[in-house]
Amino acid sequence: MSEIYKNPFLSIVVPVYREETNIHPFLKRAELVLEKLNYPYEILFCLDPSPDNTEQIILDEIKRNENIRLIKFSRRFGQPAATMAGIHFCKGEVCVVIDVDLQDPPELIEEMLMKWREGYKVVYAKRRSRKGETFLKTWISHFGYRVINNISDVSIPSDTGDFRLMDRRVVDEIKRLNESHGYLRGMVAFVGFKQTFVEYDRDERASGATNYNRYFGSLHIAFNGIVGFSIRPLQLASLLGGIIAVGAFLLGLWILIEKLILHVELTPGLTYTIVLITFLSGVQLLSLGIMGEYVGRIYEEVKRRPQYIVEKTENL
Known about the structure:
This protein is of the alpha/beta class. It is 52% helix and 17% strand. The chain is built from 11 helices and 8 strands. An 8-stranded mixed sheet has the order 7-5-6-4-1-2-3-8, with helices on both faces. The radius of gyration is 25 Å and the shape is elongated. The relative contact order is 0.14.
């Protein structure tokens, strides 16, 4: 076994926003795990500017533990951008992305490292159950993953989040992608390499309410996965348009046959006409919306604006 596998440097990337009550509990559990492993490590808190005391608490913890670092952004860029910043700045042979709210247990890192030593370049955490989540949020998540996997060009594991371990080679390849919409799950699936999973039961948040992704956040993530890794919605819109056009042609042909050949006296169908026009208008708007999502994505990529802007760092 190489020296890297015996004594890897671990980078723990933690995106945070308004999490003043969770910093201490997270560090208490994470540091116990890291001390038990006895590997060199760094914990990178990637902070969207918060109106609470999150920043000061992290700064105080840096004074206590020299392995803690802080990356603060100039404004709120969102969780995907914060996560990507941590990936860009991390220095470890192994990078672990994890949330601070303790829904994803730091104790699982040890099992992930065992899989990494077996030769896996990515070890993602797969949820057996989800405590503290409503039926609607769970259903949206399950439905979103099924849709993404059915139409995406890459296979994105279901029932997973950003909680995962990545080898340095995978980290370097993800950094090369340089996409403005940082859908980590899709990018990790895209770069490939040998991947596996460990299962766990997801706990409730240690305290407070989620500040990043609720119902609409989950839908936004799903749209990122669909638009960023598949063109099938565009193909579906074209197919649907073709089917409706053929149907309208056949309907018109049948009306002509009834009128000219069968001599059937046709009655005005105002209601049916309104329904048909409304349906066709809805299909057109849906198709335009799908195209708009892709055009908007192209617009964002062409501008090449940075995913985030760092205001300051501490202990990097």
